[in-house]
Amino acid sequence: MVSSIRDVTAQVEAEQELAQREQQYRLLAENATDAVFLMDGDWVITWASPAVATQFGYERDELLGRARLDFVHFEDRRLVAANQLRAVSGQLERHEERFALKSGDYRWMDVAIRPFLADGGEVLGYIAALRDIDQEVHVRAALGRSERTFRLAMDGAAEGMAVVGLHRRFLEANHALGRLVDRAPAWLTEHDEEDVLHPDDVEPARQVRDRLLGGRSDHESRPCRLVRADGSLVWVTHSVGLLRDDDGLPLFFVCQYQDITASPRPRTATTTPPAVTAHLAGRRRDT
Predict the structure, then answer these.
(1) What CA–CA distance (Å, rounded) separates 286 from 36?
(2) Can you count the helices (H) and strands (E) in the chain?
(3) Per-residue pLDDT, 156
(4) Average pLDDT of 250-279?
(5) The pTM is what?
(6) Where in the chain is the domain with CATH 3.30.450.20?
(7) Other Cβ atoms within 10 Å of 116 Cβ, number
(8) Residue 54: how many CB atoms within 10 A of its CB?
């Protein structure tokens, strides 16, 4: 009899570690709220987590053996196919897509795909995790429409308009306001509102903002003077409103400046007095 004994301790330990790791990954995937797919090298689904039933309405057997692209909205397939090709490099690939529900509807999903490789670097398949972001995408779209509407309203307004931060910094300014003070909107967004207010109107403007922040008022209007680039003054009705978030926390001020220079009313001269000239020399930045 001839007997041969070979030490396979390292191989057995590696197999045991691999089995334990596979069990941990499977437990994680089985209990994850995100849908997880395992696909072969041709992007055919070979395994799906139980979350696909709650996320998409499918039984797992209904997905196995089908290409993942079959469930992607036709408008997103070209983008998804291109992104899948990039995943071959071994890097994590992320994108957003619309995934088909069993009901026939689609939901927006955040998709993360990573290939799993053999020891020699050969791609054995791919793992995809899909997280439901449908509500988030619709909220983003609504905010985008709201922002476009706001920008159109600002750009098309005949009166000067601006969004001013809580520390009185210009965040947005339209061209009408730029024409009022003879400044480019880009210049305004590099300065504070107080840089274009007459010195005597700075403190009253601060008091208005304090009342708005304190909740004693929602909106206030008062006449004030703006200082133009050449030092001349223009009278405006300065209307200020405070925008708050859903929790009531202040976000920023929305300001409107209506030119009333030609209106019949008692006011001081529209030329800059020496005190204002000295004030501007101290406050003015790069023009």
Answers:
(1) 56
(2) 8, 10
(3) 79
(4) 64
(5) 0.55
(6) 9-136, 149-283
(7) 11
(8) 10
Backbone dihedral region for residue 90 (phi beyond 0: left; psi -120 to 50: alpha; all else: beta): left
Q: Which CATH class is domain 9-136?
A: alpha beta
pLDDT class of 275 with cuts at 50, 70, 90: very low
Shortest CA distance to 32 belongs to which of 47, 20, 50? 50
> Closest Cα partner for 227 from 192, 255, 253?
192
Which one, of 126, 129, 106, 99, lies nearest residue 115 by Cα?
Answer: 126
Rounded (10°) CA dihedral 211, 217, 222, 225: 40
pLDDT of amino acid 130: 93
Which residues neighbour 231 within 8 Å (Cβ) at sequence distance 6 or greater?
271, 272, 276, 277, 280
Q: 40, 29 in Cβ contact below 8 A? A: no
| Coil/strand/helix, residue 215 | coil
What CATH class has 149-283?
Answer: alpha beta
Cβ–Cβ under 8 Å, residues 111 and 127: no
Torsion angle of C-alpha atoms 212, 215, 216, 222, degrees rounded to 10: 20
Residue 185: per-residue pLDDT: 87
Confidence of residue 262 (pLDDT cuts 50, 70, 90): confident
> Is residue 228 a contact partner of residue 234, using CB atoms and an 8 Å limit?
yes
**Average pLDDT, stretch 103-110?**
95
